[in-house]
Design a protein that fits this description.
30% of the residues lie in helices and 30% in strands. The chain is α+β, with helices and mostly antiparallel strands. The strands form two sheets. Strands 2-3-4-1-5-8-7-6 form an eight-stranded mixed β-sheet. The protein has an eight-stranded mixed β-sheet with strand order 10-11-12-9-13-16-15-14. Helix 7 crosses helix 9. The longest helix has 37 residues. The termini are far apart.
Length: 384
Amino acid sequence: MSNADILGLFVWHELMTTDPQGAAAFYSDLFAWDTQPSSTPGYMLWMSGSTRVGGLMMQPDEVRGTGTPPNWLIYLGTADVDATVDAAQRLGSRMLKGPTDIPGTGRFAVLSDPQGAAFAVFTPDNSAPSSTDAPSLASPFSWHELATTDPQGALDFYSQLFGWSRGPIHHMGAGNSYQIIEHNGAQVGGLHRLQDPSKPPYWLTYVKVDALDGAVSAARDSGGQILQEPHEVPGGDRVARILDPQGGAIALHELPKAAAPAPTAPRARKSAAARPKAAVRAKPAAPPKPAAKKRPAAKRAKSKPAAPARASATRRSAAAKSGARKTGKTKAGARSGAAKGTARRPKVLRKALKKAARKAARKAARKVVKRVVKKTRRTPARRR
């Protein structure tokens, strides 16, 4: 990124404190940061792994003499420190430290805005981009908040100096409001009216943490003071404010948890007994067989001879048997044959054939009876 592109960006964060060693121990426990010496005597670098995230130094004597508590100083990028200092002074700013070169690192100056909040401006040294002291734009610092006595005047000042613009405004009740600050369309911070008139205006820096409640508990255990317990702000973020053991204020920031889909657990193989019945994989059932048609009585009996029709008299039955012997066929056999041929015929036709068969049998029986009676009557006459 060229110097022309860093105007108005938060490019560095520096803790000025009364006890650098104590502060180093506190923040190392809180954020898992380490410290590393820089090329400037007495100036330490905050390291997150191999990434430089900020600086640590003893608070200057002239600052301590004013009663200013330890604080985190923000550095805003500019392509030309001297030109920015001149423009800031024309807008009512006061210069606290004039433009100064840091060999192999860049040029900076420290100012206060018209309301009294301190900030620094910085131009990296492009001749030494690989310098270990050069600020890194990859930073764990996620938000910046200005508490001031004149929110409208402060916004006008920074907008003219760094090109910031007014974003959404959140009304907090009791006449208080929170103004979002945007830079190139992105929300980078906010400002609000200072609630405690006994305190000077100040910038508050927010640091990202994964678990806010755990970080607050760790800060308390390490000697920090909780100024504001964890709470949710518009947008779903959660924040808290603390004081380190030396009195430096900083805010902790937990980003909203993304609504990611629940992870799909690997599908464990279950036995058939453990799985729900509906989930058991069974072989496809055979298609249902069509309902069997009701077979006629003659078919179910495997064409067994049907019982002969009962004659109305013993003589008729005897005659039927006698006639059957002569013809070599029985009525039952005739019915059986008829049944075989008609087993699969329509029901009405089967009934009609059975009726005709019974009628024919009766007729044949009557003929036999007549012949027997006639023969019986002739026999006595011959004997006479």
